[in-house]
Amino acid sequence: MSLLMTRGGFDDVVVGNGLIGAAAALEIVRLGRRVCLVGAEHGAAGRWFSAHFDDSRMLRLQHGDGYWEAMTRLNLPLMRDLKPQPVASFLTPVVVRLRASISTGETASVRQRRSLGNDLLQALELEDEAGGIIDPLAYIAAMNAQARVLGLVQHSAAVLGVSEVGGRCQVETDRGTFTAARVVHASGFHAAEALSGLQVVGKVLLFARRPHAVAGPKECFVDTQPGTVAFSDVYGFCDYRRVPQGAVTKLGFSEARPVLLEPSQVPGWFSGGWQRHPRLADMLAWLRDWHPGFDPQLQARPCAFSVTPDGRPALWRSGAQYWLAGCNGMAAKCCQALARAALAALEPALWTAVPPELRMTPVPRHA
Ligand SMILES: Cc1cc2nc3c(=O)[nH]c(=O)nc-3n(C[C@H](O)[C@H](O)[C@H](O)COP(=O)(O)OP(=O)(O)OC[C@H]3O[C@@H](n4cnc5c(N)ncnc54)[C@H](O)[C@@H]3O)c2cc1C
Question: All domains of the chain, ordered by start, with CATH?
Answer without folding.
Answer: 3-88+135-197+310-364 (3.50.50.60), 199-307 (3.30.9.10)
